[in-house]
């Protein structure tokens, strides 16, 4: 299994990013890369393409553009499932009930403003790490394709 995954700190949790980053390290992850990209609406639509038929899609894209974000590549044995477990259930209200130590319980608010993103599986982790590197983390790449 992969030892890397892709993580975002979403706009709702950006003010508490330093506490979240402390928690990430305490949970045994190494932060291999960290940046504060500013994806366009179109880039977020592509990043979240799997959700484009869902009723919350437009709200999600607007929410992700509502403030700064932190993008990270995290490394750890079993990074993908371990990071999903660390962040907890998608809905922060459910996380507060079922996984009070999780990051979404501690730093999130509800089903949309849930503090963090984590890749769902190894294929998504590869795609998201690559998408971020090529599409908006690395502007040099765009200038010198
Ligand atoms: P995440 O699982 O990281 O990626 C998809 C995001 O869509 C999810 O986090 C939430 O931020 C948002 N989301 C998922 N389900 C809902 C929902 N039912 N209503 C509003 N937003 C949602």
From TrEMBL:
Annotated Nucleoside diphosphate kinase-like domain ranges read: 2-133
Annotated transmembrane regions: none
Annotated active site:
117
Q: Which residues bind ATP?
A: 10, 56, 84, 90, 104, 114
**Highest taxon, organism lineage:** Eukaryota
Q: Which family does it belong to?
A: Belongs to the NDK family.
* Name of the protein this chain belongs to: Nucleoside diphosphate kinase
Q: Which residues of the full protein are shown?
A: 22 to 166 of 642
